[in-house]
Amino acid sequence: MLIFASISILILPTLTIQLGGLLIQINLAFTYHLMGMAMILKWFCKLRIIHNFLWCLFFVRNEQISGGGQSWRKVPLFRLKRGGKD
Fold first, then answer.
1. How far apart are CA 80 and CA 86, in angstroms?
2. DSSP string covering 24-76
3. What is the pLDDT of residues 15-31, one digit of tens each?
4. pLDDT digits (tens, 9 = 90+) for 31-41
5. Integer CA distances (angstroms), 67 to 5, 44, 55, 70, 71, in order
6. What pLDDT is stored for residue 9 in this prediction?
7. Which of 47, 35, 85 shows the shortest CA–CA distance to 64?
8. pTM value surpassing 0.90
9. Planar angle of CA 74, 79, 84, nearest 5 degrees
10. Rounded to whole angstroms, how far apart are CA atoms 25 and 14?
11. Phi (first) and psi of residue 72, to 5 degrees
12. CA separation for the pair 51, 70 (Å, rounded)
């Protein structure tokens, strides 16, 4: 029992001792890998949301173009004058 306890102290994330004196191996490397992948996926999703939001801020919808119906027109916000017309 003392040998198993000393091994579990040396290799803490992979070996533990249960109540019945049983030695089981828990491999946490796979769990760490999944958590890392989840963090990267979360970062990409957040980046995509920010990119789409900035795209919507840069291009606006102009409802009256040449007296016609509604259509999309790429007009940067900083070039718009009052009333939404160039």
1. 6
2. EE---HHHHHHHHHHHHHHHHHHHHHHHHHHHHHHEEEES-STT---EEEEEE
3. 555 544 444 455 555 66
4. 667 778 888 88
5. 83, 41, 26, 9, 11
6. 52
7. 85
8. no
9. 75
10. 6
11. -95, 140
12. 25
